[in-house]
Here is the input.
Amino acid sequence: MRLRTLSLVLLACGVLEAQDDFLSDWLDRSDQAKQDQPQWMTPLVTVTPRLEQEFRTDLVVEQTASGNDLVNFGNSKGLELIPVEPVEIILNAPPYLEHNQGNVQDGFGDVSFLGKVRLLSGNEERGNYILTVFLAASIPTGSYSNGARSGVITPTVAGGKGWGKFDVESTLGAGLPTSHNHAIGHAIAFNNAFQYHVLSKLWPEVEVNSTFWKDGADDGKKQTFLTPGLILGRMKLHGRLSAVVGAGFQVAATHYHTYNHAAVITVRFPF
Here is the structure.
């Protein structure tokens, strides 16, 4: 009995040591990946071309054309991981949508995923630039018609360039429905974020967030929002864990828009 107990203890110690080595190696790889790229802040709306490792959740309050506030809890954000140096995977939790309309049922939106592959990068000492490709996918899991009618695959190219404390980050992507193409159409998203690093932890920014529709019910329509915002971070919490908070306000800049304006709040915990 004592020999069996000793064997179990030694086995458990071996498993724990292996897990500790795996975690240490993972964090070393992710640290190296982040050191090989610019240290800019992830914008409020535009998906950064940088590789990041963090947990993130957002809150968005949209004023719709009917005057009601659509509250989006989570905004399709979640866990971001760097498994190997040039790659990031993002596992997004489905958002919860509160419509504040008596005839519209609240519920969860679609589950979504995103993968990044960084093609080129240089940190602030080596050119201050980055080029990345994304592939996002969503699954129509939304409840009470709070999601899309089909899955959507979204390939995207993203890049950025910095000059001292100023940087520009841009993305261009197209949503490709897996079915119901004639009804859904194709949404082409073009986002640009202009940031300036002030003091040690302040990142004021202005974003230009545009969507153009091809085919479907919104064929030929386009909308653009201007999004000024301010992000505070990265603030050390414990060990390698940090905190980032930010807020901004979207204002419609085109005649056609799916909502009038929106407040955006973000909370992130990089590690």
Notes: The first strand starts at residue 54 and ends at 63. DSSP finds two helices and 16 strands in the chain. The domain at 36-270 is CATH 2.40.160.40 (Porin). The CA atoms of residues 140 and 148 lie 6 Å apart.
